[in-house]
Amino acid sequence: MKYLPLVLANLGRHKRRTILTILSVALALFLFASLRTVVTTINASSRFGGARRLVALNATGLVFPLPLSYANRIKAMPGVHNVSWANWFGGRYGDGKRFFANFAVDPESYLAMYPEIVIPPDQRQAFLQDRTGALIGKRLLSEFGWKLGQNVTLQGTIFPGDWTFTVRAVYTPTDPAIGDDVLIFHHEYFDERIGRAGIAGWYIVEINDASQAPTIAKQIDDAFRNSSSPTKTGTEREFQASFATMWGNVSLLMGTIGLAVVFAILLVTANAMMMSARERTGEVAVLKTIGFSDRLLFGLVMLEAGVLALTGAFLGLGGAKLLYKATNFNAAGFLPGFNVTTATLILGAAVAVGLMLASGLVPALRAARLPIVQALRHVE
Amino acid sequence: MALVEIRDVYKSFQRDTQKIDVFTDLSLDIEAGSFTALMGPSGSGKSTLLNLIAGLDKPTRGTVRVGGAEVSAMSAGQLATWRARNIGFVFQSFNLLPVLTAYQNIELPLLLTNLSGKDRAERVRIALDVVGLSDRADHYPRQLSGGQEQRTAIARAIVADPTVMLLDEPTGQLDAKSSQEVLTLLQRLNNEFNKTIVIVTHDAHAADRAKSVLHLEKGDLIEKVAVA
Amino acid sequence: MRIPFIYNVRSVMQRPYSTALTALGIALVVAVFIGMLALANGFAAALAKTGSSANVIVLRRGADSELSSGLGRDVASMIAASPHVATGTDGRPLVSPEVYVLIPLGKSFDTTQLANVVVRGVSDQAWMVRSNVKMTAGQRPTSGRPEVCVGQRLVARFPHTGIGQSLHFAGRDWTVACHFSAAGSAFESEIWGENEQFMPVFRGEVFQSITFRLKNPAAFDDARRALQDDKRMTVDAHRESDFYSQQSQLLGRILAILAWAITSIMAVGAVFGAVNTMYAAIAARSPEIAVLMTLGFKPSSVLTSFLFESAVIAAVGGLIGCLLALPINGLVTSTTNWASFSEIAFSFRVTPLLLLNGFLFAVVMGLIGGFFPAWRAARLRVVQALR
Question: What ipTM was reported for this prediction?
Fold first, then answer.
């Protein structure tokens, strides 16, 4: 691009203005990428779910338990490969300021159903063999400074008292939606301490054929419809998706703010472009005298706006992507797998291009339409 | 056929509510290889005439031909292209782009051609050499004296090898010494390189250096004096 | 000697577009600032108004929300007998034992979108203990019948909530007997019904919370100590207002942090815009500034003059921003309060204080943006500028 030195020289005329404008664009696109990533992360987690896993809850509401006796009945149903169960524990560690999920599961069956939970074999064995053992997500190690073999005590909120576990295994999730900061312990230990007849918070049912999901789900619900604890069964993905909707109108909120941000920066960029353009009418006239065509000058101004916008976009979008990856950001556990997607980057680049067009258009048209003789008269 | 042929040109301007006639019926020729000075009081239309030749302005009536091409009938787009190839313009206030070095300023007209980077560099070097500023190639206009700036502007005007060079009061903002330098350069361009030069000027010294002088008064050609 | 304001006004009018763009940029930042804080405010307010400082809520010890708590009937009797409990006009102690569960309900506009709605079992006393709750339509549920009362904020957003209509949950049909309001608090997002109706279908003979009115609101600490030291029960007592405020902390804090983070970043961008504008303005007016100084105006006057100009442009932006944000006030939105896992609807709350903050924020942005350019103007070398 032989005209690039000319465009860059023009931008270098007011270095401070150019830098400030580029930084503004960078900040705006950083915000844009961040806001959009909140939405994409929530959506991604709502799409998580093994195709062959069903979740059965108490139909009255997920805060109500299901009898453990259902396990064998469900397992005996056609098409069902395996059954596991879990109970939300809701324990608090320390002052409770750093929330993390913790629940009791039937360990052998649960881990067998979730290949996404990757544990070194020796640790897996250690966990399975220790009834008071805990399996923790990788992040909890760094968050609390826990070590393998250490005792960890949680305050029960739903099930009162101090509950002590020994850290026996650390897992790494292969799917970011699972979250790397969960604590899992043995259901047997849970049953023992609460002393009540066995209850499960929810069942996870692994089926042989994913296409059978609706049929089997209905079968399970039919079986328990008239009991005291009727079930509502659906695919794991539906279950996850229902959590996503609990955030409420997040996309609308983020989208509106994103729009305001982009618009505000558009004003800043357009202003900078206009100021530069106003100061250079004389030079535009000279260039036209030399023989630069109207169309070429239009293009040069657009190119100038483009350099501003795209440099800012590169800094802002790239910065967002790198920052969140480097800090392993997950909003204190609420947004696991927070990662700026390629789609977001592309969308951000498109926004930058739009910014370029919108902010450059008026000055570019002005330059193209500048009447040479009159402009020269101002110069002389 | 003269290089520049102006025939029956009528040019008027609208200034607010007033209509001002600059030329009512102007015809003149400028031969190839000539060095012509256009003189006359303010408002006589000298600059306008230059603009007409350069295709920067159109006559209200009449024709302007340069090198056989009917400039007065071309569209704006055609004029831009034509001007890049055929006209070298020098202003009173130099009008160099302050953000570009002397080299880059001179290169500007060549960007409009299809020449390769190497070819462009070659031509710029030659132009710098001709105007005697080879050692100042990387200087910015603010680092040059007035005379040096004007010489850079002249280099910019010749680098694309135009058909005719038009200069509007080229020595107007220069001191005596710089003026002499510039005028000597112009004479050399005309004698050695056979460049056709038309300069508008108040400066009698400049007129002396030219080969012929045209006097304009109120849009009429009064006198054509051939200087030996 | 102060440079007359009219100079600034005239100069600004000579660059109308540039000024307008800068002011608008600031306006947008202020609008987002006010909007987001109004959201956080609204949420906090809804929860803050939920509890009264004259009431005490009792939960099982260690429970961090009503959901995780469980108290027996015996505990309810013991509390009713406490000397700290106020007596109602009918002579009965103002004690309200309550069942608290969450049920999934599909929203009106899209029934596949579920929300966890609070269903609260109450007795007659509840209506008196929670004094900001008032019935707005229909009649109180008849004892012994499967009837419920629906909070105002739920009515528009969930189907089958009209008077006389039938809601289905916990495997049963419940007739909607009345609607109630609660001063915009969290209760308005709840469904109320008789304890005895709910207990058998939910968690059996256990309450989740017991709320009572303090006989002497100043004696909360005594009441709390008495209950927590009582060996017959293991409970925690909280002032009701504090308890619900606490519940709003998590999400409230998140919203506030989000508001400040986003607006700060936007503000930096807007300030950059202001800086650009002011520098350009000053560059264009150098000769005038030089003339002013030649006439005898001091550099400090020049500084003040330009700072003032920048601040005024920003202030205009601030006003526009306030106007842009005003219509949000009262807009109802909902989300899940993660602390209690329950659905709560609340309205954006734009307060005069918030508007003032937004306006001041704008002025500060203007002052920051204008400072360095104004400083440059004040330090202008007269001779250079006049050349």
Answer: 0.85
Are the C-beta atoms of A252 and B45 separated by less than 8 Å? no
Find residues 156-215 of chain C whose CB sits inside 8 Å of chain A: 169-171, 201-203
Asked whether the beta carbons of C285 and C376 are under 8 A apart, the reply is no
> How confident is the model at residue C366, as a pLDDT?
92
Relative to beta strand B87-90, strand B164-168 is parallel
Q: CB–CB of A248/C331 below 8 Å? A: no
- Residue C68 touches chain A, beta carbons under 8 Å: yes
Per the rule left: phi > 0, alpha: psi between -120 and 50, beta: everything else, C164 is: left
**What is d(CA A375, CA A40) in angstroms, rounded to the nearest whole number?**
51
Cβ-contact B214, B37 below 8 angstroms:
yes
Q: C-chain residues within 8 Å CB-CB of A153?
A: none
Minimal Cα–Cα distance from B103 to chain A, Å?
12
SS3 C255: helix
User: What residues 160-189 of chain A have any CB closer than 8 A to a CB of chain C?
Assistant: 160-161
Asked if residues A230 and A58 have their Cβ atoms less than 8 Å apart, the reply is: yes
CB contacts, 8 Å: A295 with chain B = 77
How far apart CA A87 and CA A326 sit, in angstroms, is 34
Q: Shortest CB distance from B104 goes to which of A5, A287, A296?
A: A5
Q: How far apart are CA A341 and CA A332, in angstroms?
A: 20
Q: What SS3 class is residue C40?
A: helix
User: Residue C101 is inside which H or E element, if any?
Assistant: strand C95-106
The pLDDT confidence band at residue A380, using thresholds 50, 70 and 90, is very low
Which regions in chain C score pLDDT beneath 50? none
Name which of A24, A60, A264 is nearest C103 (Cβ-Cβ).
A60
Residue A346 exposed, middle or buried by CB count within 10 Å (0-12, 13-18, 19+): exposed
* CB spacing of A60 vs C234 below 8 angstroms: no
Span B33-43, average pLDDT: 87
Is B88 within 8 Å of B197 (Cβ atoms)? no
How many angstroms separate the CA atoms of B41 and B52, rounded? 18
